[in-house]
């Protein structure tokens, strides 16, 4: 009886993963169908007719990158009398002083730039953007996080689309990477983001599916923000929330994969893990908030509704991966006979990695070298499954929450040293669970070897390696913090 139950549970988990694998296969198919479509040409607008644009730069404790983002924005090829720069600062360290010095220097050069320092951080990033919007003079609002370094022609290649097409609410650019080659962690993240910004975004946008604003590297029409209900902070994914509300209200989004805004990738496993917790929690909060509106929307057809719900619930794959990890010991002990369906489902779940291969082939000539980062990305995905599952539960049970920033260190290429920086990632409640799961995976590996379940040995080893990678990353950060305490004594 018990072997049958274990087999049914394992098959049920595979069914869940297969559902999201089908979602990915559909996106890949749509991408291949639309990828050769010609991008819309940038409308030609006389320089004298260019509109007022407000560039918002939300900051919180960004001492290492604040000068870089301000220098990049100041270099925009846009008439100064129609360019307003807002530095919206929620910092409680010396970032504020650094930002003020740069703002004053740019003001002396004739830039219309202001520093808005908030003493109370209500709403976190969403609250900062909302506060800036109240004072903004621009008809169009460009948003860049502090770790970005957009190209000088960014506004020239995005804003004219909004001017020409009154149904457009947002133009989103593609994220590039300033430090993809810095470490295995950054290479793995670049692989995932490239797939998202090539295959997923192009497929959704060109096929008329709902897609998301990525929080930075985009330009909004101010009226679209206001008519969609403005920046709200009952979720911690304010970008995803606003983009869905805007599209449900009838506004369109244009994605331009050839307009690239390079950004810095976090080099720490602990920072990546923390970021994924926030993204998972925020996505599920937006799913809760928007689910009814999506299902009942007269603007959307059944395919659009289904793909939107799969998009917002995508992080549910993480508890399913966790379930596979937890089922490995019962599978080793009872070795149940799996139905033919389970074999077919297992094969289907092997298809999503094509997403990453296609993303690399699309963007880089040296894609065979870059795709070698996939095993590391896979291990990260397994290792953070407990942490991300906690984020999902948090998103299901609570609204809002603290927006925990991901520390940046002014890394470029392989240059820079995060170890000497002041910022660190705090330990959280997920670590004890991750240590226990690592021990559990080790037990599974030893049992599989002892009982000669050779077919389960590779899976047990894979699960153990993923869990240990994330635990090592968290403990590495703890060791670094203790070293800094010793240096300060």
Description:
- This protein has a seven-stranded mixed sheet, with helices on both faces.
- The protein is globular.
- It is α/β, with parallel strands linked by helices and 489 residues long.
- It is built from 18 helices and seven strands.
- Helix 6 packs across helix 13, helix 9 packs antiparallel against helix 10 and helix 17 packs antiparallel against helix 18.
* Structure annotation, total helices: 18
Helix content: 55-70%
Order of the strands making up the biggest sheet: 3-2-1-4-6-5-7
Largest sheet report: 7 strands, mixed
Shape call: globular
- What class, by secondary structure content? alpha/beta
Note the gap between the termini.
61 Å
Q: Extract low-pLDDT stretches.
A: 482-489
Strand percentage lies at 5-15%
Helix and strand run: HEHEHEHEHEHEHHEHHHHHHHHHH
The number of E-state strands comes to: 7
What does the radius of gyration come to? 23 Å
Q: Roughly what is the average pLDDT, rounded to an integer?
A: 93
């Amino acid at each position: 009886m018990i072997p049958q139950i274990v087999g049914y549970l394992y098959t049920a988990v595979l069914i869940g993963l297969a559902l999201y694998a089908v979602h990915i296969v559909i996106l890949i198919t749509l991408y291949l169908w639309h990828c050769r479509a010609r991008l819309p040409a940038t409308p030609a607008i006389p320089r004298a007719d260019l509109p007022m644009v407000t560039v918002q730069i939300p900051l919180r404790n960004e001492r290492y990158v604040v000068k870089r983002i301000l220098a990049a924005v100041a270099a925009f090829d846009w008439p100064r009398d129609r360019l307003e720069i807002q530095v919206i600062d929620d910092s409680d360290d010396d970032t504020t002083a650094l930002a003020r010095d740069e703002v004053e220097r740019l003001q002396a050069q004739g830039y219309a730039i202001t520093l808005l320092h908030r003493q109370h951080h209500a709403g976190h990033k969403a609250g900062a953007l909302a506060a800036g919007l109240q004072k903004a003079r621009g008809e169009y609002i460009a948003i860049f996080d502090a770790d970005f370094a957009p190209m000088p022609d960014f506004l020239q290649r995005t804003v004219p689309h909004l001017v020409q097409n009154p149904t457009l609410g947002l133009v989103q650019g593609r994220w590039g990477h300033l430090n993809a080659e810095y470490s295995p962690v950054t290479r793995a993240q670049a692989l995932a983001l490239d797939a998202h910004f090539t295959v997923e975004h192009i497929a959704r946008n060109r096929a008329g599916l709902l897609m998301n604003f990525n929080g930075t590297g985009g330009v909004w029409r101010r009226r679209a923000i206001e008519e969609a209900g403005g920046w709200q902070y009952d979720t911690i994914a304010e970008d995803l929330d606003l983009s869905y509300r805007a599209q449900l209200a009838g506004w369109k989004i244009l994605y331009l994969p050839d307009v690239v805004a390079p950004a810095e990738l976090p080099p720490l496993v602990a920072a990546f893990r923390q970021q994924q917790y926030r993204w998972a929690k925020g996505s599920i909060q937006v799913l809760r908030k928007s689910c009814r509106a999506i299902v009942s929307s007269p603007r959307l057809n059944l395919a659009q509704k289904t793909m939107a719900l799969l998009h917002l619930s995508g992080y549910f794959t993480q508890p399913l991966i966790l379930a596979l990890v937890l089922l490995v010991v019962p599978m080793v002990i009872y070795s149940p006979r799996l139905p033919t369906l389970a074999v077919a489902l297992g094969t289907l779940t092997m298809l999503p990695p094509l997403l990453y291969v296609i993303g690399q082939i699309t963007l880089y000539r040296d894609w065979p070298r870059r795709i070698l980062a996939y095993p590391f990305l896979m291990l990260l995905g397994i290792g953070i499954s407990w942490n991300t599952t906690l984020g999902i539960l948090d998103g299901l049970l609570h609204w809002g929450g603290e927006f925990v920033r991901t520390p940046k260190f002014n890394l470029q290429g392989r240059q820079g040293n995060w170890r000497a920086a002041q910022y660190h990632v705090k330990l959280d409640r997920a670590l004890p669970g991750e240590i226990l799961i690592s021990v559990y995976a080790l037990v599974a590996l030893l049992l599989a070897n002892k009982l000669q379940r050779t077919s389960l040995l590779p899976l047990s080893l894979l699960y153990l390696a993923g869990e240990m990678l994330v635990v090592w990353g968290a403990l590495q950060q703890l060791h670094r913090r203790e070293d800094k305490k010793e240096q300060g004594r």
